Amino acid sequence: MMKTIPEHVRNSWRRRLLAGLLASPLLWLALLSAGRQWPYPALLPLEWTPEHWSRLLTGRSDLAFSLFFSLGLSGGVAVLITALSFGVSRAVAYHRRRRYWLLAAYLPYVFSPVILAACLQYFFLRANLAGAVAGVFVAQVLITMPYGVIFFTNFWNGHIRSLEQLAYTLGSSRWQATLYVLWPAARGTLLTGFFQIFLISWFEYGLTQLIGLGKAPTLTIKVFQYVQEANLFYAALAGTLLALPPVVLLWINKRFVFSRML
Amino acid sequence: MLLEAVDIAKRFEREEVLAGVNVSLPASGMLSVLGRSGSGKTTLLKILAGLESPDRGKIVLDGEDITHWQPQKRGIVYLYQEPLLFPHLNVFENIAFGLRLRAWAEADIRREVEAMLADLELSDQANKAPHQLSGGQKQRAAFGRALIIRPRVLLLDEPFGALDAETRANMQTLFLRLAEAMQLTAIFVTHDLKEALAMSHRIGLMQSGGLKVYENRRDFLNEAGAGVQQEMNFWLNLFETEAIAPSNPR
Amino acid sequence: MRSRSQPWLLALFALLTVAPLAAGILYALAYSLGLTGLLNTGFTLAHWQAVLGAGVFWQALWFSAAQAVGAISLALALALVVVLWRPGAFQTGLLSFAIYLPLTLPAIVVAFLAFQGLSKSGLLSRIAYALGFIGGLEQFPDLVNDPAGIGILLAHAGMATPFFILLLTQLYEQERVAAYADLAATLGATRRQRILKVQTPLLLRRAFPTVVLYALFVMSAYEIPLLLGSQSRPMVTVLAVEKLQRYNLADIPQAYTISVLYSVVVIGATLWLLGRQKTQ
Q1: Confidence at residue C222, expressed as pLDDT on a 0 to 100 scale
Q2: Which among A102, A194, A203, B98 would be 20 to 30 A from C103, CA to CA?
C-alpha cells in the first residue's frame, strides 16, 4: 500500500524551502565573503579562505575602521534624531494644523536623498562641511528627521493624551507625568524608532557619497569602492557586515526592522 | 424539518466547545439561541454555514446530507455581528453582490435591488459608501444583501449587539416584519434574554457544550426563567418603595 | 494642550525638514536659471530649453516611471498570490522570521548581489552553462547594464516583494479579510470569485497609499540604477548626479534643472497622494 506524506510534513518541507529561498541572498553574500577565485564557469568559488574575515577581526583591514565608523555615525544620528523627533512629534501631533505639519514631513521623506544632497552641496561647501564627517552627520540628520517625526507622531494618539491628562488630574507635575506615565508608555516605541532611524542612516549611500566626498568611509561606500575595484569578495564581506546589525535586530524583535508608513 | 443538525461536536485544542448538539428547524421557522460568551453559539452557526467543520455529527438540509458541502453551495447565509459591508462597494452594489455572483441580468438586478432598498428605507443611501452610513443603516444594508438572494436558512450572530437601544428596537421590528413577509427560516443568536424572547417562541439555551430547546416560552420561563423573575421582582420592589404606581400592574 | 516649548519645537522641525528642502530646490532653481553658479551669466532659460528639448530628461523620467510601475506591479502581483494562497503563512513560525531577511539588505548590496547573479559571468549564467543551455558566457543574454533595465527591474521587484508580503499579511489580519471572504462564501461566491471580487479589492484598496509611496521611492532610487543601469538609458537620479559630477561644467546647470523637474514630479505626486488620503 502506498504511503502518503502527511500534510503537516509536506507543509513543513515547503516552508523550509521557502525560508531557505528567502535566506539565500544573505547566505550567498556570507559565502562569497569567504571565497577566493571564482573563475567562469565554476558554480562556487574555487577556494575558501578565512583570511578576509581574520584580517577584519584583527584590525588589519580598513573595513574594521569602516565598521566602527558606520556604527558610530549611525548610532549618533539615531540617538540625536530619536530624542529630537520624539519631542517635535508631540508638538506636531497636538497642533491644530497637524495635517499640514505632517505633510511637510512627508515631502523630504519621499524626496531622493541623493538629489537632496546634490541641491544642498553648495551650502555644505560654503559651511566647510563638504568632505567632512560632520557634514555627513548633518546630512543624515536632515534625511532621518522627517522619518522620525512621522513615526513618532503615531504615538501621540488620544489614548496617550488621556493618560497624560489623567495624571494631571491626579495631581502630578509635568515632569512626573513624563517620568511615570509617558516614559513607560513610550519605551517600546522609542526603541523601535531608534533602530529604524539607525537603519536608515546605516543603509544610506548616495547622500553620504555626495556630501562626504570620500572622507566618510561608511560600509556602503566601501561596498561601492570594492565593486569598482572588481573585488567581489571584499564587497561581499562589506555587504555581510552591513546586514549583520539588522539581522541581529530582527532576531531580537521583528518590529525594529519593519515599518509601514501610511 | 428543513434543517437538522445531529450530534454536532467540536473541540478547539483542549476545549470541547460543542459536545453533541442537536438542532432542528422547520421551514419558515425561527429559533432564538441564548447563551453566554464562549458557550459555543458562534461555533455552532459557523458549522451550520460550512465555515467550520464538525469533529462529529451530521447536518441535513431539506433531506440532503450537507455536512461536507462547501459554504457557497449550501444556501445558508451567515451574518456577523458587524455588518461587514464591503468597503469598496457602495450600498447598491453591496446589496447586489449576491445577484452579480449568480450572473443575473442587469435589469433584473436593478429591479430587485431597488425594491429591497425601498423595503429597507435605504433608497436615498444607494450611492453612499458604507462608512457614510449610521450603524442601523449599515445593518439594514447587510440584511438586504443577505435576503435578496433568498437564502434557505439565515443565521444571525448577535446582529444588533453593537446598536444603541432605540436602533436595536427598530431593527428587531424590521427583522420580524421581513421574516414574516419572506417566510424566513432563521436561527437568531443573542445573549439578551428579552431579545431572544421577542424574536421567537422557540428558545434554545446553550450551556456546557449542549443546546436545550424549549418549544414555547412557557416551558422556557418555567425552567430557565429564574433570571426573568428576579428582574421583575427588582422593578416591582423599586416601584413599591418609591411609591410609584406601575403603569401596567399584573 | 499648548506647551511653552511647542513653538520652539515646531521651529526646530521646520529648520531640519522643510527649510533644507526648500533651500535646496530654490538654489537648484536659481542655478538652472543662470542666477547663480560657477559659469552664471545672468537670467537665462537656455538650460531649461536644453533639458526639456533634448529628450534625454524625458527619456530618463519615462524610464524611471516605467521601472517603478513595472517593479511594483510585479512585486505586488507576486505578494498577492502568496498571501491569498496561504494568508497565515507569514504570521507565525519559521516563515514569519524568514520573510524579514531580505529586508536586512540595503539597496547597494542588493545591486551588488543582482549583478553577481544576473551578469554574463554571474551565477545564473554559470548555472545555464552547467545545464548545457549556453556554450559560453557570450551567449548569456544581457540582463544587467542593459537598455531595457531588466536587472534594475528584477532587483527592485526582489526588494519590494517581501515588503509587500508583510504589508498584505498585516492588512489581511487588520481588515478582517477572512471574515469578508467567509461572508461572501455564504452568499454563494466560489473561491475564484472571493479572490477577485472581495479579497483582492479589499487588500489593494488599503495598500494603495503605501504602494504609491514605495513606487515613488523606486523612482527616486540611486544605488540600484547606478550599478545595474546602462549609460544609454539612465534613470533620473543617476542622470542628475552624473551631470553634476562630470568635468564638463556646462552640464552642472542641467543637473540642477533636472533636480528641479524631479522635485516638481515627486512633490506633486506626494501632495496628490496625501490629499487623496484626506478625502478618503
Answers
A1: 94
A2: A102
